[in-house]
Amino acid sequence: MFEVIKNGGWMMAPIILCSIVAMAIIGERFWSLQRKRILPADLVPYIWQLHREHKLDEATIRRIKLSSPLGRILAAGLLNRKHGREIMKSSIEEVGRQVAHELERYLNALGSIASITPLLGLLGTVDGIIRVFSDIAVGGMGDPAVLSGGISEALICTASGLTVAIPSLFFHRYFERLVDDHVVRMEEESLRLVDIMQGAREDV
């Protein structure tokens, strides 16, 4: 592996750096975007039970807020539940936009890596081809080893760039879809809470 990297030329350094960053982002997003961390099961029924038992004080709402992104959204509505349906909904929507933005953290960087690494590979390829033609201009076609070195560098850079870009693009699209699904689900849970608190539903 070291020989392959060495033969790929100087452009392998930024490609390897991009691969390390991409792996770190993918691992972090897999951990942070777990459904159980974003959308705890039975949170709305739990809040409804506390409401019926008149236990929704500020300390309890603060614990709900810190429990998860969904809890943060619902807590915004709970703090404004006495101000009517529209105020409750608008406060939930305001915090919901902030939470949705936070769920997309690092995804732009991952998408940029997916776009940049093929270009880095192409740049390495061009550099390798330029070296081949420079060697031909100086020494002619008599040394196959020199020519094969430049061609090898070109092919290694191209392959390395694509090897990083393809999974980065795949996971970028996957996480975007996952965030969209989480946001839709949080909207559904928030509207359900609003209906319950404002009397549009009798139970969960």
TrEMBL record:
Any single GO BP term: protein import
Domain of life: Bacteria
InterPro entries: ExbB/TolQ_transport, MotA_ExbB_proton_chnl
Keywords of the record: Cell membrane, Membrane, Protein transport, Transmembrane, Transmembrane helix, Transport
Keyword Transit peptide: no
Cell compartments where the protein resides: Cell membrane; Membrane
Domain MotA/TolQ/ExbB proton channel: 68-187
Topology with respect to the bilayer: Multi-pass membrane protein
GO CC terms of this entry: plasma membrane
Family that this chain belongs to: Belongs to the exbB/tolQ family.
Protein name: Biopolymer transporter ExbB
Protein source organism: Methylomonas koyamae
Organism ancestry: Bacteria, Pseudomonadati, Pseudomonadota, Gammaproteobacteria, Methylococcales
